[in-house]
Design goal:
The model is unreliable at 1-13 (pLDDT under 50). The chain has a domain at 52-180 and 222-256: Rossmann fold. The protein is globular. The chain has helices at 25-39, 43-51, 54-66, 83-92, 105-117, 156-166, 184-206, 209-220, 225-234, and strands spanning 15-18, 21-24, 74-77, 98-102, 124-128, 141-147, 167-178, 238-245, 250-256. Helix 2 runs antiparallel to helix 7 (184-206), helix 3 (54-66) crosses helix 4 and helix 7 runs antiparallel to helix 8. The longest helix is centred in the C-terminal third of the chain and has 23 residues, at 184-206. The strands form two sheets. It has a seven-stranded mixed sheet, with helices on both faces. It starts with 14 loop residues before the first strand and ends with a strand. By secondary structure, it is an alpha/beta fold. One of its GO terms (biological process) is aerobic respiration. This is Ubiquinone/menaquinone biosynthesis C-methyltransferase UbiE. Pfam families: Ubie_methyltran.
Length: 258
């Protein structure tokens, strides 16, 4: 038996949250990948059911504040099904330049198929990659977006650091993520609803209650608005702000690389 007080003993593996469980950090990415492989075919339908379609308004707001212009290069991380990328594409007009990066090939396959169905054949690049170790050179993009993906990474600070690294000076970072509801009574109602509704819809529609139970739990363990803003500043972002939407059910965080 290993004596934990022995300085020569091997260190315990670093832990990471996976829903309400703590798992070895090295295993989290694989566990998250399994979740999204399971839900990929019905992911967008589930988003509509769970949010009553409001997620579409949240994403529209994200792209409104991003204000994409022709000639700019954008990176959408954890956006495999293309929901945000397609909005940027339409706003950029004749010269879209968007890279979608997702760790899960199954999600990217859904996005590529949707792009073909929409006739979006040029200006979109689909790349398998990890938010904590992006496969792009320094200072490559004018804008970085991540919608409902940051809570699924193993190390949030690494992902924020990578976002800062790949942005050009003056580049914009936008993170849309579930957050802390600003009203305690409404927060209790919302938490009770989501803890029951997500697994229920997951079982009925996606035939996978466990994956949606994880998604609910990951929302509850994500850092609240003020803490995430602090961590963004620690990774070098300036002019860090956030905007609560739907009473803080989600928050849109923004920062600039200077």
């Amino acid at each position: 038996m290993v004596d934990p007080t022995d300085p020569s003993a091997p260190a315990a593996p670093e832990q990471a949250s996976f829903g309400y469980r703590d798992v070895p950090a090295a295993e989290k990415a694989s566990l998250v990948r399994q979740v999204f492989e399971s839900v990929a075919p019905r992911y967008d339908l589930m988003n509509d059911l769970m949010s009553g379609g409001v997620h579409r308004l949240w994403k529209n707001t994200l792209v409104d504040v991003l204000h994409p212009r022709p000639g700019e290069k954008f990176l959408d991380v954890a956006g495999g099904t293309g929901d945000v990328a397609f909005r940027i594409y339409r706003r950029q007009g004749d010269r879209p330049d968007i890279t979608v990066c997702d760790i899960n090939p199954a999600m990217l396959a859904v996005g590529r198929d949707r792009a073909v169905d929409r006739g979006m054949l040029k200006g979109l690049t689909w790349t398998t990659g990890d938010a904590e170790s992006l496969p792009f050179p320094d200072r490559s993009f004018d804008g970085y977006t991540i919608a409902f993906g940051l809570r699924n990474v193993t190390d949030i600070d690494k992902a924020l650091g990578e976002a800062h690294r790949v942005l050009k000076p003056g580049g914009r970072f936008y993170c849309l993520e579930f957050s802390k509801v600003t009203s305690a009574p409404i927060g209790r109602v919302y938490d009770a609803y989501s803890s029951r509704a997500l697994p229920f819809f997951g079982r009925i529609v996606a035939r996978d209650a466990d994956s949606y139970r994880y998604l609910h739990e990951s929302i509850r363990r994500f850092p609240p608005q003020r803490e995430l803003a602090r961590r963004m500043r620690e990774q070098g972002f300036a002019n860090v702000t956030w905007r609560d939407m739907t009473l803080g059910v989600v928050a849109l965080h923004a920062g600039w690389r200077v």
